[in-house]
Specification:
Number of strands: 22
Radius of gyration: 25 Å
Shape: globular
Largest sheet: 6 strands, mixed
Distance between the termini: 21 Å
Number of helices: 17
CATH class of the largest domain: Alpha Beta
Strand order of the largest sheet: 12-11-15-16-18-17
Structural class: alpha+beta
Helix content: 25-40%
CATH architecture of the largest domain: 2-Layer Sandwich
Amino acid sequence: MLDLSQLSKYKENNRIEAKKAQGGLPHSIWETYSAFANTFGGYILLGVIENADKSFSSVQLASPEKLVSDFWNSVNNHSIVNVNILSDRNVQIVQSSGNRIVVIEVPRADRHDKPVYTGVDPFSGTYRRNGEGDYRCTKDEVRAMMRDQADISQDARVMDTMTIDCLDTDTIRRYRQRMDNLRPGHVWSELAVEDFLHRIGAMARDTDGKLRPTAAGLLMFGHEYEIVREFPHYFLDYQEHDRSATEDERWTDRIASSSGDWSGNICDFYFRVYNRIAQDIKVPFKLEGTDRIDDTPLHKALREALANALIHADYYDRRGLVIQKWPDKIRIANPGAFRINVQEALVGGVSDPRNESLIKMFNLINVGERAGSGLPSIRTVWQKQGWQEPEIVESFNPDRTMLLLPLAANKAAAKSGDKKWRQKTAESLILSQRSERTISFNIWTDTPEASSTQIADAIGLQVSRTKMYLAELVSDGAVVAEGSSRTRKYRLKS
């Protein structure tokens, strides 16, 4: 539960809402409940006021027990809020400065429960949280959440008005050639084109038994002008910027799906973009016997990052998929929110793909790892390179996921003379969730204890801010602090 001594950090992250509630359960509580559930989660405090200096003070409540009873009666009333995502442990009465207050912990809702909304109309009663507070979601945001409710893969839909002529024959030919090279003698290699596409999920039978492109087949192999018939906002964009360019300056080179001089589908986009990125990545080659091996773990991680964005994108959503490359970083942004918690994705082992057929198609040509291993694999490679930690940013209105891949040295690794500090990590911890991003850092296996200064260098934050985040980890019981303020070290709780 919430550490009342650390309220300020929750306020900074905008994951706390204080309500005086001396007149009873406030009606605005349901907007906040909806907003927290549809964003990153948060805490609602009843019997608490925010002072002019942004600190919090408790007030006397006539009957906290009645507030709790009224809350449970209301949260289970479907005319007030559509779904109850809480359990008994999420609502508690606690002591604060001599007063009893009610603490309600609202978790991030599972995608099957979204949108969480007030009243009976999701398009008027769905809220999210940003830096300013609760805001009413647009219809596009609500529709995106509704799309993600379904257990059927988004790309499985049969395009019943399209034929194989909507697909690019050259893309299909190149794809089959790659698969033949990687999987010689495969049982599908001699199949006719339509039968092959049927086997890989690019075509399926409609209600009349005719083979039609699936959404996955259209995205993977289609002509761009056919793709936008089904996905009006479809757009793939790769931009290169030189070292002197600011983030707002124009690109020096570009690959865009709408240019008209190539197919515009995601298969061809993937290979065009990967080849451009890979040629600028300077890593030592290896020898296997007398053969030179140019395909390094870093190259595999780059393929994984690129494929992940294409596979997990919500192509019905607004704004397209944009990849920007500078000499010192790569930024990959795709439409669609995370379908699982970012923490789960970073740890690995959990996968909830939006487009399962696309995963199959990429896997057949050895692109993409097993489900749930993508982000951990990428982070491991970056650690071994001694580069700064990859960063994930999740934003809304419109829903968007961004992966930032720094191509610059980790400050701690560069400064430290201790080689052990640069060795593999034991565990990755989520340090803080902000309204628009998640920050993570590593505690290293061979350096079991680290100072706040060492950790600040490792994650590229100021020491003062790092100490605040470490206090959160200590409060949560994930990290142990030992020693006085000057000599304090932090270690993982055993």
